[in-house]
Amino acid sequence: MLDRIPLEAFRVFDAACRFMNFSRAGRELHITQAAVSRRIQGLEDQLGAKLFTRRGRNLALTPEGERLFQRVRAMLEYLEESLEPFRGGGREIISIAASGSVSHLWLGKRLKDFDNESPSVSVRLLTTDSPSELASEANDLVILYSTGEHPRWNLTLLRKEILVPVASPAYLARRGLDAASLTADEVADLDLIDYERFNANWISFRQWFTRIPHPPKRWPNPRLSFSTYSLAIDAALQGEGITLGSIGLIAEQLASGALIEVGSNRIETGYGYYLGMPRYRSLSPGAARLHQHLLAGQ
């Protein structure tokens, strides 16, 4: 029977199982939804077994489909591992996706360290603030802004999101300020540096001030607003004013004294930065080593 079933049929079946959506499987494979449906139907006819059932708009695997998926996934993973020596001049190529702020403030240095330790692995970094691109299963690993749950990724916490105003020592000295003693009203009157909220769950100064125990009496107007969070941090480092610091992302700047916490209000948002590994496929050896390296470098 196997000699009558092309390998492509199993690749299509694997993608349909991982996405549980024929359209998304087609996009990954660069074929139409109708082509995916035809290939699945053909595979079912050749095997003489129903592989999927429909529940409203949702797909589900039959018991036969579940058993086949496990075997097909194992087969494709074995083929992938077998082909690794022929790629990238003998170097394994892995991909990781992260937001601009995570890439700039936290991940970049750790990838350089990993590169020095793992010369046989090439890492491709996708930097994007698009949630769909970050969570794409075309990536081997991802770093997601999340509460810790995702249908396609097993997530491990790297950094909790704890937000506190921060400024450079030069700015505080120029204004003659004692950072620790500043009240919310005094902070609101200073040179605030804000950033755009690309994600509805992100928190900028407006949301932060509403969550602290004693919000300022006068609503603050930021002096500067940047398109990205990392630009706001850079402006604070250069002494332009005060911005919200995500402690987990700027731990090195706080430890070195390049930035100083302002006031005594901290807000823990319930979100954090999570390292994700795929739920429905195994990591390659290089991706597994990078996963462990990033967890060890917390």
Automatic annotation (TrEMBL):
Residues 5-62 form the HTH lysR-type domain. Belongs to the LysR transcriptional regulatory family. Signal peptide: none annotated. It comes from Neorhizobium phenanthreniclasticum. The lineage of its organism: Bacteria, Pseudomonadati, Pseudomonadota, Alphaproteobacteria, Hyphomicrobiales. InterPro entries: LysR-type_TF_proteobact-type, LysR_HTH_N, LysR_subst-bd, WH-like_DNA-bd_sf, WH_DNA-bd_sf. This is LysR substrate-binding domain-containing protein. Transmembrane segments: none annotated. It comes from the Bacteria. Keywords: DNA-binding, Transcription, Transcription regulation. PANTHER family: HTH-TYPE TRANSCRIPTIONAL REGULATOR, HTH-TYPE TRANSCRIPTIONAL REGULATOR TRPI.
